[in-house]
Amino acid sequence: MALLHLSFAQHLRAATILGLPLVGGHLAQFAIGLTDAIMIGWYGVTELAALTLAVTVFMTFFMFGTGFAFAVMPMVASHAAQGEDVQVRRVTRMGLWLSAMFFVATLPVFWFSGPILRALGQEAALAAEAQAYLRIAGFGLLPALGVMVLKSYLAGMAHTRAVFWITVLAAVLNVPFNWVLIFGRAGFPELGIEGAAIASVLTHGVAALGAAIYARRKLPRHELFTRFWRPDPESLASVFRLGWPIGLTNLSEIGLFATSSILMGWLGAVALAAHGIAIQLATAVFMIQVGLSNAATIRAGNAHGRRDAPHLARGAQAALALSGAVSLLGMAVFILAPEPLIGLFLDPADPARAQIIAIGTGLMVMAALFQVVDGVQVVALGLLRGVQDTRVPMGMAAFAYWVVGLPTALFFGFTLGWSGIGVWLGLVLGLGVAAALLLMRFWRRALPAFAATGQSLAPERAGQ
């Protein structure tokens, strides 16, 4: 197969064209949670604090489960580059199977989340509100994971614009769903935080239905849903082997942030509400980085399928350059305009508004600090996933987040008494170590091994 070697500028352009719809899709996905936070924030500070806890729990399991969806993306990209349509169908279908199995296994946690949150030191009232949300929103995990698999499939097939518009549709519909169900409009009862949960389930369902319809109509040759019930043990095992380390890597990171919410809950509802707002704003920039990471995964997966090491290396440089530009822009916004951003989430008449803004402004400075390291580590993970190297990166991420990040968060936040600022400083250090380790893994091990053999690091070599 003849290989076309692009210049750095051409790689930048290609990554941008591929990545922009993915970035837009992730921002639209983020907008769903942002809408919930803003509208519940206007409903009440207590409800906002409870939503912060509930969404933390939901996202912890959601990100764990998306390991199988993220595994589908590089596998589809690699098989598509080789013209293997049957393999594309098999891995996508089994990604959906594994996601459904994960949903069934985790649903009891959502149902009994109240006692778990109380055992973790949360206030009884907040735990009860969070459980009320999760008992409804937990059923949305199935369509949420399903749409992630289908979006990974479509992205791997270069249908990134469809991913964007499907997610935008869901984000737009989430606004009236929330308005009607949270506040009791258009003849519906006022349901508060439970209304937000119902709206999220409806939103995820619409997105999943839209993705399935598009896949069936635009890519009929793959016949994704024909004889869907039929098991495929070989492909199931392949997706599972690649996906479980990705899921545990996601769990390591989201678990660190989930634990940070637990720690902030020890400081009270006001501190937790400020933390929830700062996390939402930092996540907005992170979603851009995730889109660039997905683009890096797809392009690396294509290079993997074609056995093209120079394309892989130059594409990695382009992806990291784009990530750095986004990080610098995010830092500038967080440092220059924290108060107006935080104020978007709060009722002007809320008596706790001034205190939340004061705490949140300090947290935004810390969020600015970890923009660069957060971008580097997620793009490096995307590149490694593209060449199907996931097990050692999983261990590196776990070490950085839990051996470095959490202990330093506890030390700075509580031993030294720096409160929320100290907790967030621990997050910065954990992400920084992850960025350094993962970047070295790609440039010093994965890329040289691929250049020498035309293959990614085999599992048996990964630990060497």
UniProtKB/TrEMBL annotation:
<feature type="transmembrane region" description="Helical">
    <location>
        <begin position="396"/>
        <end position="415"/>
    </location>
</feature>
<dbReference type="GO" id="GO:0006811">
    <property type="term" value="P:monoatomic ion transport"/>
</dbReference>
<keyword id="KW-0812">Transmembrane</keyword>
<keyword id="KW-0050">Antiport</keyword>
<dbReference type="InterPro" id="IPR048279">
    <property type="entry name" value="MdtK-like"/>
</dbReference>
<dbReference type="Pfam" id="PF01554">
    <property type="entry name" value="MatE"/>
</dbReference>
<dbReference type="InterPro" id="IPR050222">
    <property type="entry name" value="MATE_MdtK"/>
</dbReference>
<protein>
    <recommendedName>
        <fullName>Multidrug-efflux transporter</fullName>
    </recommendedName>
</protein>
<keyword id="KW-0472">Membrane</keyword>
<feature type="transmembrane region" description="Helical">
    <location>
        <begin position="421"/>
        <end position="440"/>
    </location>
</feature>
<dbReference type="GO" id="GO:0005886">
    <property type="term" value="C:plasma membrane"/>
</dbReference>
<keyword id="KW-1133">Transmembrane helix</keyword>
<keyword id="KW-1003">Cell membrane</keyword>
<feature type="transmembrane region" description="Helical">
    <location>
        <begin position="357"/>
        <end position="384"/>
    </location>
</feature>
<feature type="transmembrane region" description="Helical">
    <location>
        <begin position="94"/>
        <end position="112"/>
    </location>
</feature>
<dbReference type="InterPro" id="IPR002528">
    <property type="entry name" value="MATE_fam"/>
</dbReference>
<feature type="transmembrane region" description="Helical">
    <location>
        <begin position="277"/>
        <end position="297"/>
    </location>
</feature>
<keyword id="KW-0406">Ion transport</keyword>
<keyword id="KW-0813">Transport</keyword>
<feature type="transmembrane region" description="Helical">
    <location>
        <begin position="318"/>
        <end position="337"/>
    </location>
</feature>
<dbReference type="GO" id="GO:0042910">
    <property type="term" value="F:xenobiotic transmembrane transporter activity"/>
</dbReference>
<feature type="transmembrane region" description="Helical">
    <location>
        <begin position="162"/>
        <end position="183"/>
    </location>
</feature>
<feature type="transmembrane region" description="Helical">
    <location>
        <begin position="132"/>
        <end position="150"/>
    </location>
</feature>
<feature type="transmembrane region" description="Helical">
    <location>
        <begin position="251"/>
        <end position="271"/>
    </location>
</feature>
<feature type="transmembrane region" description="Helical">
    <location>
        <begin position="195"/>
        <end position="215"/>
    </location>
</feature>
<dbReference type="GO" id="GO:0015297">
    <property type="term" value="F:antiporter activity"/>
</dbReference>
<feature type="transmembrane region" description="Helical">
    <location>
        <begin position="48"/>
        <end position="73"/>
    </location>
</feature>
